[in-house]
Amino acid sequence: MRVRIYTTTYCGYCYAAKRLMRQRGIDFEEIDCTSDRAARDMLVETTGQRTVPQIFFDEVPIGGYDELSALDRSGELPRILRGEQAPTAIT
Predict the structure, then answer these.
(1) CATH code, 8
(2) Is 23 part of a structural domain of the chain?
(3) How many C-beta atoms surround the C-beta of residue 25 within 10 A?
(4) DSSP 77
(5) d(CA 80, CA 10)
(6) Mind giving me the DSSP string for 20-66?
(7) Given Cys at both, which of 5, 17, 43, 81 links 65, Cβ 3.0 to 4.6 Å?
(8) Count: domains in the chain
């Protein structure tokens, strides 16, 4: 599964999300949108959110750090990453 995280250089929740993914051994691609207006606009179009981090499993936007952490606590995160459970898009 492809995991992407959109971040900024000044976001504490971005650092927390990356730390959690590293602790769980999750490979991810980081897209720094600190100065990338097009990336930020795409996030708003895709997720309806202007905040970061925004995390995608394949092409499904799952939310930010709070949502990632909730998936981890519930035990759903490893099932999603193994393909046993589909990720749920934020609404």
Answers:
(1) 3.40.30.10
(2) yes
(3) 8
(4) H
(5) 29
(6) HHHHTT---EEEE-TT-HHHHHHHHHHHS--SS-EEEETTEEEESHH
(7) 17
(8) 1
Is 91 a residue whose pLDDT tops 70?
Answer: no
pTM of the full structure: 0.94
Q: Please, what is the Cα angle at 22 between 17 and 24, to 5 degrees?
A: 100
> By the 8 A CB rule, do 61 and 36 touch?
no
Rg of the Cα atoms in the chain? 12
CA distance 85 to 8: 29
Residue 89 phi/psi, 5-degree rounding, is -75, 145
Express each pLDDT in 70-90 by its tens digit. 999 999 999 999 999 999 888
